[in-house]
Amino acid sequence: AQSVTQLGSHVSVSEGALVLLRCNYSSSVPPYLFWYVQYPNQGLQLLLKYTSAATLVKGINGFEAEFKKSETSFHLTKPSAHMSDAAEYFCAVGYTGTASKLTFGTGTRLQVTL
Amino acid sequence: NAGVTQTPKFQVLKTGQSMTLQCAQDMNHNSMYWYRQDPGMGLRLIYYSASEGTTDKGEVPNGYNVSRLNKREFSLRLESAAPSQTSVYFCASSVSANYGYTFGSGTRLTVV
User: Fold this and answer.
1) Which of A48-52, A96-100, B19-23 has the highest mean pLDDT?
2) For residues A102 and A53, what is the distance between their CA atoms, to the nearest angstrom?
3) Can you tell me the distance from the alpha carbon of A51 to that of A73, in angstroms, rounded to the nearest whole number?
4) Three-state SS for A84?
């Protein structure tokens, strides 16, 4: 069964520091990979997605992620954190032929401090 | 605005009561989903509907039923609510596997 592992349930960074949120997936077939962001008391919003085109994917709000097949990873990065980035981030994986279902990781809460 | 609409946004139930969570999308998506979100557990799939007229169980279907009323609407029913069903419920829709989901804003349900 497909699965997603997000290392670190909480990550704290200083404003202006690099953000790195980790995501690994288990799969024997090519995946589609997604990062979603959830602000407090809101729904989930798509940040970016990998769908077998370029391995480096750029998303909204300055975030990007790199698909590394050899490491089965899809880590999310942002060069310089902003206070407004404080939220919960979810990695998700999907595959063709599965009714478009996504499997989500358990989430990483990002805290940004002054 | 186009998207996924969930009602209600908040609900408090007593143990044993029933209720239906409503979800509607206006993007002409074929597939719709119900997830629950609990702290530390991410989002877990309750039921999904790959297309109008079909529904299937997800990871945590016990205690729930669903109805795909038409292409737009997908409702989730709790027949006899239990405290373990206290959660935030999200509806989502999708057009294809590489599209990802569009989510509703969620329903916060408390069962006392």
Assistant:
1) B19-23
2) 19
3) 14
4) helix
Select from B103, B105, B108 the residue whose CB has the most chain A CBs within 10 Å, as the one to mutate to test that interface.
Answer: B103
> Residues of A numbered 45-104 whose beta carbons fall under 8 angstroms of chain B's beta carbons: which are they?
45-46, 49, 51-52, 90, 92, 94-104
* Higher pLDDT among residues A98 and B38, named by residue: B38
Is B100 close to A106, i.e. CB distance below 8 A? no
Q: At B40, is the pLDDT very low, low, confident or very high (cuts 50, 70, 90)?
A: confident
Distance CA B82, CA A74 (A): 37
Mean pLDDT computed over A61-71: 94
**Residues B71, B28 contacting (CB under 8 angstroms):** yes
Phi-psi region of B60 (alpha: psi -120 to 50; beta: other; left: phi over 0): beta
Are A36 and A90 within 8 A, CB to CB? yes
Residue B87, pLDDT > 90, answer: yes
Give A54's pLDDT tier (boundaries 50, 70, 90): confident
Q: How far apart are CA B12 and CA B8, in angstroms?
A: 11
- A109 has a chain B CB within 8 A of its CB: no
